[in-house]
Structure formats: structure tokens, C-alpha cells
Amino acid sequence: MPSRRRLLAAAPLLAAALAVSACSTGPSGGEEAQSSASTTAPADAFPVSVEHTYGTTTIEAAPTRVATVGWADADTLAALGIVPVGAPKITWGGNEAGSTDWFDEQLASIGADPSDVTRYDDSAGIPFDKIAATAPDLILGLSSGISEEDYDKLTKIAPTVAWTEKAWGTPWQEQVRTIGEAVGRSQDAEQLVTDTEQTISDAVAAHPEIEGKTAAWAWFTTTDLSTVGLYTTSDLRPQMLTELGFEPSPTVVELSAKDPSAFTTNLSAEKASSLQADIIVFYAQDESTAQALKKNDLIGQIPALADGHYVASTDNAVALSMSLPSPLSMRTAVEEFLPKLVSAVNGTPAS
């Protein structure tokens, strides 16, 4: 199973309507690259104070060099027309450059080069030295789960805004609004939320068969099928299933209540037949994974799996749009992942 950190991490929704002055990306070929356009809303006055899980961060002036530690934070900046100086390398579901196609397309639309953004690998932990090397004047960690110790180290580099609601589980709307506040573009951020939510609403309205259906997002360790791993209601994947019109699995809701801070939980394989969900989503290496699970004496008793109401997700780039929701990834979610879910509802397994 991919770890939560490695999963955290579309077409531009406001590329035409929202164009704002972009921050410099930092040195490239000896010079600073910069992209700019006109604003559609007045910038907020500075200083601003932003609340988050570790307190309040005061940002004295409009930041011009923003680095990120949360995988989706760079998406939000780009959607607001701001080019980050540094961002984590997308090592799960990303493209060959360690980015995502939707991020690269957005940067191109505002006249920036994705290769000018420093990508640092965080698979072994936050690379403080590499972040410091980008000389940021603001660090964002809204879509992260940074610890207080990590936060304290980051604040020695630059003012830092951490996650606000739950580690790894701050809803994308809250991420966008908080980032908008931190960079002085709260009105633009609110419009971004409105437009993105409309994209979701329009997509869901086109599929009335989803209404009333329950869904669970699971994971399996093929070398140990004694348990069924389930992402809890605190995790962004089930949250996205809810946004796309599904009701949460009653089984997942019950298990999630035992530890509201956890993003995964386990169900004994002996109780697999009790997993209440009209459809089930899980990661798969290839199509044979689902067949192997169905043949397992216990796992195969999961009702949705046995009846063919499942998505055995083999395309990590598309699945990333569900675990890394942002205004940029959302169109991939509704155009490429939602049809898989609808297929599962209708009894045709999807991958």
C-alpha cells in the first residue's frame, strides 16, 4: 500500500477568468523566471495572520517566493497564478519530471516553465536543506501532515503555515482558502472554490444512479490477506467519494469513529462479508489482482467484490486526482475517475 505521505500529493479551472500576478520561480539559467497577468480581485492588505494547527503565522508582506511541503499546495498556488519556487517531487502517480500533467499545463497557461520549479524528494522525510536553498519567504504545508517538530524547523527557514484540520486530511476547500489568505488573494481563492465545486456538482448531476449508493476505499497487501485495509472518513479519498455523490460505507463510518485521527483502519478478513458498501475501490497492480482477491476464500466474500461492483485502480496518475484533490486535479477526477465509479455502480468492474 502506498503510504499517506507518498499519496499526498486537471485542466485549469480559472485560466481564462482568473489570471493574477505570479511570483518568481527562482534562479534558472542564472536569471529569475517570472510570469504575470492582470488580477481579477484586489489583493489583501498585509500583514496577515493565518491560523493553523500549530498556532498563528504572521506574514508581514506579500510573499514573492513560496515553497511547499504539501503535495497539493503547489496546485493551489498555480491555480491562483503563482509559481512556487519549490515543491515536493510527485513520486507516486506523477509524470517523469516528478510533477503532474495538470500542474504543468497550468504553469504553461500562465507563461511559466514547469522545469523552473525546484522539485525535492520527500520520500525520506522533509528535505529542509533543499527547501532552504530555494530561499523562500513563505512555506506552505496545508496538504501535509507535518509534525510540530518539523514545523519548528521550517519556521527557522521562513514563515510557515501548517495544516488546519487533520494531518493529511484538511479538506481541499480549506486548503485553498487558507493558502489564498496567506498569499493575500482570499477573494480569488473563494472564487476558485466556487468554480471547482460547480465542476463537481455538474459532473455528479449527470449521474443520478450514484444517489444513495455507499462506497468504501480499501487496500490490500497481497502477501497478507488476513485483513482488509480501509481508508477512514478522515482520509481525502473517502472524502472525495462523498463529494462525487456517494454515501460513506456504514462499516467504514463505524470503524472510523474508534480513532478519528487515523486515516486507515483494518477489518479482519474473517469479517469481510460484513463490509457494507455498494461499491468498493482499491489499488491493483493489474487486472489479475482483482481476480486473485475474488478467489480468496475470505476476501472474496466482500459483497461488492463478489458482485462485480468495484474499481481495481491500476492507473496511479488518475487515482492521484482522488488522493490529491485540488482545483487543478479535480477535472481529472470527474472526467477520468468518476466514469470508473459509475461503471462499478452499474455492475461492470473498472480498472
TrEMBL record:
Residues 1-22 form the signal peptide. Belongs to the bacterial solute-binding protein 8 family. It comes from the Bacteria. PANTHER family: FERRIC ENTEROBACTIN-BINDING PERIPLASMIC PROTEIN FEPB, IRON III DICITRATE-BINDING PERIPLASMIC PROTEIN. It is found in: Cell envelope. Keywords: Signal, Transport. Residues 65-345 form the Fe/B12 periplasmic-binding domain. Its main location: other. GO terms for biological process: iron coordination entity transport. One of its GO terms (cellular component) is outer membrane-bounded periplasmic space. This is Iron-siderophore ABC transporter substrate-binding protein. It holds the Pfam family Peripla_BP_2.
